[in-house]
Amino acid sequence: MDRIVICMKWGTLYGPDYVNVLWSAARENISGPFRFICMTDDATGLAPGIEAMPIPDLGLPPDLWRSGGWPKLAMFLPQIADLSGRALFIDLDMVLWGELDPLFTLPGPLVMLDSGPWRYRNGIPRPMSSIMAFDIGGLPHLATRIIADPRGMAARYQNEQDFIGGEAGEIAFWPQSWIRSYKYHLRPPLLIDRFRGPHPPGPEVKVLCFHGNPRPIDMIRPPKGNWDVPPHYGRGQVSWMVDYWTRHGGHL
């Protein structure tokens, strides 16, 4: 079965460096052949070896392109070009830190990230779409339902990951030790963050998740003053993030 890594880039928030770094990091952490697909509205600056293709049209209204990640649902169309096999979708602001081969073989029609243990105590899974595994063409109802009623689904669900969680059916989740959050697992405690920066992820971590602010680029090309969200504090470059970024071809 083919292994396919998919990312999406639209608009101007993320430049080609994000795609190129993700591609290089995927090559470092996946053994054997795989395809790397970037669905995008602008393929300028993408590295050789990245297969660029247009984002399939779901007929979304313009405001749903700007709010949440609704275009991601195009990955679930019954057929996308010549793609077939097991897909691993990864958001552009994820940091690939360790071996990714097991992410292709964990069973389940859809594997998602459960952020519930990070933020809540009620034990209810909170599916996140930052990194997902599925068989191409295996969940067509997710595409057909948004095509049939984009406004109704957007009114019912806050964003695309809530839609997937509510409409997908059976969902499996990544082991918590594989995917860690910068905000909840690496960010230094309040006050301590005034004196030291974040430590790098441990060797058991496969993917480091960034969600909202700060973003990886804030630690790589830091603005003056605080790059974190008050009352949290971060300043200057984070050496291990700079090393990751430049080692995979990103520009400072």
From TrEMBL:
SUPFAM superfamilies from the UniProt entry: Nucleotide-diphospho-sugar transferases (SSF53448)
Record InterPro entries: Nucleotide-diphossugar_trans
Name of the protein in question: Glycosyltransferase
Source organism phylogeny: Bacteria, Pseudomonadati, Pseudomonadota, Alphaproteobacteria, Rhodobacterales
